[in-house]
Amino acid sequence: MDPKNPLSAIRAAGARCWDCLDRPAPSALLAWLVPLAFGLVALALGQDANWDLMNYHRYGPYALLAGRIGFDLAPGQWQSYFNPALDLVYHGLNRVLPAPLAGFAMGTLHGLNFVLLLGLTRRLVAGRRAALLLALAGMLGAGFLSEVGNSMGDNLTALCVLGAMLVLVARWDRMGARSLLLAGLVAGVGTGLKLTNAVYALAMCLALLSLAGGVGRRALSAFVFGLGVLAGMAASAGFWYWKMWQVFGNPLFPQFNNIFKAPLAAPWGIGDTSWLPKGLLEKLLWPFIFTLHPARVIELPIRQLIWPFVYLLFLALLCRALLRRGPGAPSDGRQRFMLLFFALAYLVWLNLFGIYRYLVPLELMAPLVAWLLMQRLLPAAQAGRIAGVALLLVAMAVYPTHSWGHAGWARAGFRAELPALPAPEQNLVFIVHGDPPMSWLVPLFPRALAFVSLGSGFPESPAYLARMQAMLAQRGGPFYTILAYPHHPGADPALRDSDIQAVAQLRARAVATLERYGLAMDPASCRPYDAYIGQQLTMYQLCVVTRKPSGQ
């Protein structure tokens, strides 16, 4: 370093590093390091303790492996019957590894999105450096970061979406039936694991209709891809649909029960439309609305400026196409396909879900799409500089990030103090509130103990109530209800009066709920126990429940 001019030496070193990014070695090295870095991020965040994990991500795979489908009645509310195949990953890791290592492994799996994203950018963007930086930028989205290392599944199934897109783009010039089938298979596996990914399978299928060639080739390509999607869904979810059909008479139980009319659930469609935009004007302005008011699409206070930025670029491209003027990069079929897929997927999401978590695959691709749009809208000399600065500002606006809930690490992710139950095959436990969820405790109790939820969100039918009564008749008792509360109501002199009041209110609500089903709870019988997710303490009580005499 020149002692007389250290800044020039620093600039020279920076220039050398910048030039180095255009070589193969940094990309190859980062393909290994970035996934491991996300494993370390997951380790730093702590034990996953998100609401969905407590509600059904832990219960679902346990119920499948323990043969409890139809044995319990919806302890994880209606989500109890989602395909648990995706959750087997998290469940299996926690079975064979200490919880911190399981979290590290989940974070590393999520980090593999970088490898696929890098492969995609390399085939769509000129220059290794630009491709590498765009792939890194894609990994910095607020939605993706909020789920690093957790069990919610959006980051994990994003691998299937990116993988399918990579197959199509990589085989673009020699795309045949095998490539289309393989891409469809990968997209279908992701759809079977999490049905919300149907957005991306449908968008890819529709985008294939834009292929060069005649109408017949386009239709055949989309058809072959669709066959692959169906095969992928059969591979990842066929067993579950068949199980649901055998046990309940509805392959998607209890969803779409207005069509299948399985007796154990009310004939409802079940769909949360509260996140959707209200009216045409909101649809047209939706990226601006949910950026300014994130509570419209997500429970977290995230900031994500990439969406209005990309939206405005798409509008500019549309206007230029309509006016048929302005500079732009030469037409490229792969880039057109990518942009069309992105736009179609967004539109399908906008009209079906409106829930931000389901946009994670598009969020990962958003910097790449912004870059492609800028290249089409501006001369190449300007596009790179402007896009680089804009994406840097957009990425900075994401922070600070938020997550769905974590706890301190313990060797065992889940543990609890359990009551003495000499004959659990004679007992029945009622879950009478959906928040906080309690089904994460079910795997800790004896397998012979059955759980039934009442008044907690499942679309109960007369047959559901009859099944509950039959379970009561088959078991001799005693019967219980399980209640969760924030603090231990023991003989602690520091216990706040508000905590005592909260427990009393919880018991009162439980009594009222059980009464609607002809059951009575004795508050004096409640006994407190401790349970832990990592180091996070959760208190719960078991209270004795009896049948009310006829006529009461």
Stretches where pLDDT falls below 50 for ≥5 residues?
none
Measured by DSSP, the beta-strand proportion falls in 5-15%
The main pleated sheet reads as: 7 strands, mixed
Radius of gyration: 27 Å
Order of helices and strands: HHEHHHHHHHHHHHHHHHHHEEEEHEHEEE
- Distance between termini? 90 Å
How do the strands and helices of this protein lay out in sequence?
Blueprint: H1 6-20, H2 24-45, E1 47-48, H3 51-57, H4 59-65, H5 87-96, H6 99-111, H7 113-124, H8 128-138, H9 142-146, H10 154-170, H11 177-193, H12 198-207, H13 215-248, H14 257-260, H15 279-292, H16 306-323, H17 333-352, H18 360-377, H19 380-396, E2 406-407, E3 414-416, E4 428-431, E5 450-453, H20 462-474, E6 479-485, H21 497-515, E7 519-521, E8 527-533, E9 536-547
Parallel strand pairs: 4-5, 4-6
Antiparallel strand pairs: 1-2, 3-8, 6-9, 7-9, 8-9
Quick rundown:
The chain is built from 21 helices and nine strands. With 552 residues, the chain is α+β, with helices and mostly antiparallel strands. The strands form two sheets. Strands 3, 4, 5, 6, 7, 8 and 9 form a seven-stranded mixed sheet that branches.
List its salient traits.
two-stranded antiparallel ribbon; seven-stranded mixed sheet; 2 domains; 552 residues
Describe what this molecule looks like in 3D.
- The protein is an alpha+beta fold and 552 residues long.
- It has helices spanning 6-20, 24-45, 51-57, 59-65, 87-96, 99-111, 113-124, 128-138, 142-146, 154-170, 177-193, 198-207, 215-248, 257-260, 279-292, 306-323, 333-352, 360-377, 380-396, 462-474, 497-515, and strands spanning 47-48, 406-407, 414-416, 428-431, 450-453, 479-485, 519-521, 527-533, 536-547.
- Helix content is 55%, strand content 8%.
- The strands form two sheets. Strands 3, 4, 5, 6, 7, 8 and 9 form a seven-stranded mixed beta sheet that branches.
- The mean pLDDT is 89.
- It has two domains: 27-396, no CATH class; 417-547, no CATH class.
- The longest helix is centred in the middle third of the chain and has 34 residues, at 215-248.
- Strand 8 (527-533) and strand 9 (536-547) form a beta hairpin.
- It is built from 21 helices and nine strands.
